[in-house]
Design a protein that fits this description.
globular; 285 residues; single chain; alpha/beta; Rossmann fold; 6-stranded parallel beta sheet; 12 strands; binds NADP nicotinamide-adenine-dinucleotide phosphate
Amino acid sequence: MKILVIGSHGMLGRELVTRLTTISDLKNQGNKVTGVDREHVDITNAANTSKFIAHVRPDVIINCAAFSNVDACEAQVSEAFAVNTTGAKNVASAGKQTRAKVIHISTDYVFDGDKDKPYIETDKPSPISIYGKSKLEGELAVQEINGNYAIIRTAWLFGPYRENFVTTMLNLGRKNHTVSVVTDQCGSPTYTADLSYAIQNIIKLDFQGLYHVTNSGTCSRFEWAKKIFELTGNQVSVIPLKTADFKRVAKVPQNSSLNCTKYTKATGQRMRPWQEALEDYLDTM
Ligand SMILES: NC(=O)c1ccc[n+]([C@@H]2O[C@H](COP(=O)([O-])OP(=O)(O)OC[C@H]3O[C@@H](n4cnc5c(N)ncnc54)[C@H](OP(=O)(O)O)[C@@H]3O)[C@@H](O)[C@H]2O)c1
């Protein structure tokens, strides 16, 4: 089986390619994994994407490419839709032409955050940001175009290869010895290594449809920051803040935690708690 990872220079894409080409049992079964990014294929360009995928002829395409800067999406609306919607559509169409399965990565930010429990796959999305809207349109395009798909909604990613909430907290803590963090945004921090393992399961079991996949458990960003400093032993005071007092460009959901029961039931495997995953990540730093 040939697996093509698009967006392989990003935080998830790099982790995924590394895992699939080194320790995955998919690799041991003789599968070939190729990672590509913008310099190989620009997914906003339909002809370029179609030609590239027709040339590679993968059996499975994992689309990790995205315009993922939530605040920047508000100012660069057409670019956000070009990558997150048109790009998703182009990959799905090119995959259909070559009969490839498309695994599309999406986000918790397709929800408005007003639910008081973790979201399930059948909850109605209602995004409140350009990023969320462009990602939801991307999901709909994949579902409409290529019947052979799995969409994985994930959240609050951390891992090596790119700045993320954990590295930002550590850098701010080192510099200022105090950080202010919001208490009224809840979600499920997710380690890219654990998500890569779950994606591997989804390929092996040939799942179709929509799945929520995050590390288990929910916390506020404030609790997440506290845990980071507790685990690293850094003496940093974490000051609670409300979203309303924290100026950011994009609106973000108050509760975007995802219920992953569908994935757990289908695979028989529960994603481990985010605290354990965070501890492992910090050990690697
Ligand atoms: N990060 C999170 O907390 C989070 C949470 C929930 C869901 N997700 C989803 O998870 C997936 C992976 O996110 P990530 O954090 O790994 O993203 P990332 O680090 O921003 O990586 C995205 C990659 O896609 C590439 N890309 C952008 N536009 C492209 C184009 N037109 N053609 C080809 N490649 C292009 C980027 O290249 P450039 O750097 O050159 O632009 C980058 O290498 C995305 O679908 C994202 O929406 C992320």
